[in-house]
Design brief:
alpha/beta, Ribose 5-phosphate Isomerase B, Chain: A, globular, 144 residues, 5 strands, five-stranded parallel sheet, 6 helices, 43% helix, 17% strand
Length: 144
């Protein structure tokens, strides 16, 4: 499995811990995030992750910023990206089960680090349910 990860200054510590966990699980990690806590513009780190997911260069993406909203909004501009803002394990599970999310967006200022790692585990271990949700997911990129 290959995962692209990106973060702004609010998510550096989370990115390091999550990448360390993933690598311990023999998952390849492509790091597009900043490596320090100096203020940066989150879109600069989101676009490479979203592009990798959109072109299927990676299996999944992980994005981290203060609220998770900015990274989710930016990533969801790509046609095949379904970036879900997650702040609990239960919401993480539903975003995979029902929405077939391929990027998890984590709000570092509103989740603990252990909680974020549990959400990543849940995200990677939950399969899309399909069925009644498939038709809905297919309508996401359409402009009506």
């Amino acid at each position: 499995m290959k995962i692209a990860i990106g973060n702004d200054h609010a998510g550096t510590d989370y990115k390091v811990a999550i990448a360390t966990y993933l690598e311990s699980q023999k998952i390849e990690v492509i790091n597009y995030g900043t490596n320090d806590n100096s203020s940066v513009d989150y879109p600069d780190f989101v676009h490479p992750v979203a592009k990798d997911v959109d072109t299927k260069n990676v299996d999944f993406g992980i994005l981290i910023c203060g609220s998770g909203n900015g990274v989710a909004m930016t990533a969801n501009k790509y046609d095949t990206v379904r970036a879900g803002l997650c702040w609990t394990k239960e919401i993480t599970e539903l975003t995979r089960l029902h929405n077939d999310a391929n990027i998890i967006c984590i709000p570092a200022r509103f989740t603990s680090l252990p909680q974020a790692i549990e959400m990543v585990k849940t995200f990677l271990n939950t399969e899309f349910e399909g069925g009644r949700h498939q038709n809905r997911v297919q309508k996401i990129p359409m402009c009506l």
